[in-house]
# Entry
Amino acid sequence: MREIVLNDGNKLPCVGFGTYKATNESGYEVVLDAIKAGYRLLDTAKVYGNEEDVARAVKESGIPRQEFFITSKLDRNMLGYDNAKSELENSLKRLGTDYIDLYLLHWPRPDYGKADFDDWKHLDIESWKALEELQKEGKIRSIGVSNFLPHHLQNLLDHTDVVPAVDQLELHPGYTQASACAFCKNHGIALEAWSPIGRGRLSDNAILNSLAPKYNTSIPHLCLVFLHQEGIIVLPKSANYERMKENMALDDMIISEEDMWKIRTMPQVGWSGEHPDCERVYF
Ligand SMILES: NC(=O)c1ccc[n+]([C@@H]2O[C@H](COP(=O)([O-])OP(=O)(O)OC[C@H]3O[C@@H](n4cnc5c(N)ncnc54)[C@H](OP(=O)(O)O)[C@@H]3O)[C@@H](O)[C@H]2O)c1
# Structure
């Protein structure tokens, strides 16, 4: 599996397994299947409620802990210096490990409507300082963020020492967040794509439907190869073993530059409705 070198020198595989809602039906076994299919980057979060399932799958796989890249995230409603420190300890306990490979601030602001929604600049700086210390103590290997747009990132760059290694964003054809991606690339921040296949919302798209047959592939696979060619780490979720394997096979075709432009310039489609600066939009 190809790896991406982060700005702190650590490496991450180009494809990871997304665990959100993955464990709802068969618990840890779906993560164990993903490990058997070849995934070593496992993306979890406190709010997914499945850190224990990830820990059990890693243990039962019999593969040494150091071969895995485990990501977890600080709950957006637990931002702040003291909370970040105690939440990291809680995640370590649930994950049954003494270090996390990548720990992210899950969102730059608490849930909309929370009293401190507008105090995000101070909350982010304090949380980030805690992560910087935890990294120095060896409890986190790489520190990063998720759902941070340029103005959220600039706040950290202006007031803290360590440049985030990663920004995990909603990224897929139809929602390519060009300005946020350009900002990250200019500052050496690696990109990870959440909902890389748009959670199925792209299946009716005319442009993708015209391109997929040309490459003799499916729309989900086309989405993943597109992101892969853009140099973005993808985190597809699947509870199906065959699809898990299909989602890892991203070097078996090449999208032409002309078709890459067709996808990059598609009108916006398939957005989840989640945005860091406003209340969730339900379609
Ligand atoms: N940082 C954040 O705020 C954030 C937010 C959301 C998600 N995430 C992370 O990103 C991961 C992935 O995002 P996601 O779960 O929202 O969406 P996704 O990976 O874009 O889509 C998952 C859906 O696509 C289906 N699928 C997967 N592979 C397929 C294939 N090859 N062909 C057809 N259908 C396929 C899955 O069904 P089956 O299971 O039946 O295959 C599932 O319904 C999450 O699990 C989580 O780790 C992060």
About this structure: The radius of gyration is 18 Å. The mean pLDDT is 96.
